[in-house]
Amino acid sequence: MQGYEVKSYMFGQQHHYATMAEIEDANMPDAPAPAPNIDPPLTPGSAHNSSTKRRHPPSRGREITQHLIKTPPHAYAHLALITSAPSRTSLDAITVRAYLASALMQFLGISGAAIAVDILKLEEAGVWVRVPREDLAPFLAAVGGWVGEAGRVGWRVLGSGNWLSELVGREEDGRIWGD
């Protein structure tokens, strides 16, 4: 007597039952694949009766994960250096760090000097920085009101926000519309 094994495969909402012989025939390289029997054999009292089973419309896609960030950990600011001397136009990281530290120390004291400032990008006369979100307002107040080197330099706040992409978008929007 030959062994008999039944395996079940799921095709949409219907099951296909394959015998071991069908599986072996499908694995042979020169044999054509047999057409699957879509309708399973029904017996009285079977749970697979098509009249009692609901058919769900096929889904077009499924949402796997969803993340919501209510409060980002960092905020971003775009600053421009204002100078009275036109000869100094390019900035370096050491000068920016010194000017920002001076502004924070002058306005907020030791607690201002402790604010973590990350320099993201240096431009000709501007800089993009990242600060902790809860320190953004004091940071902007400190750098916006700072005047250094006997009144010859200062910072102008060009933009700030919780999302860098939103801030860059606003900057590009101003260039497009000529603001």
Describe the overall structure.
Residues 27-61 are annotated as: Disordered. One of its GO terms (biological process) is intronic box C/D snoRNA processing. Residues 74-146 form the Ribonucleases P/MRP subunit Pop8-like domain. This is Ribonucleases P/MRP subunit Pop8-like domain-containing protein. With 179 residues, the chain is α+β, with helices and mostly antiparallel strands. It has a domain at 74-177: 2-Layer Sandwich (Alpha-Beta Plaits). The chain contains 5 helices and 7 strands; from the N terminus they run ββαβααββαββα. Strands 4-5-3-7-6 form a 5-stranded antiparallel beta sheet. A hairpin with a 2-residue loop joins strand 1 (6-11) and strand 2 (14-19). Helix 2 (93-108) crosses helix 4. Residues 1-17 have low confidence and may be disordered.
Concise structural overview:
By secondary structure, the protein is α+β, with helices and mostly antiparallel strands.
Topology of this protein?
Elements: E1 6-11, E2 14-19, H1 20-27, E3 74-83, H2 93-108, H3 110-113, E4 118-122, E5 126-132, H4 136-144, E6 147-148, E7 153-161, H5 164-177
Antiparallel strand pairs: 1-2, 3-5, 3-7, 4-5, 6-7
Helix pairs in contact: 2-4
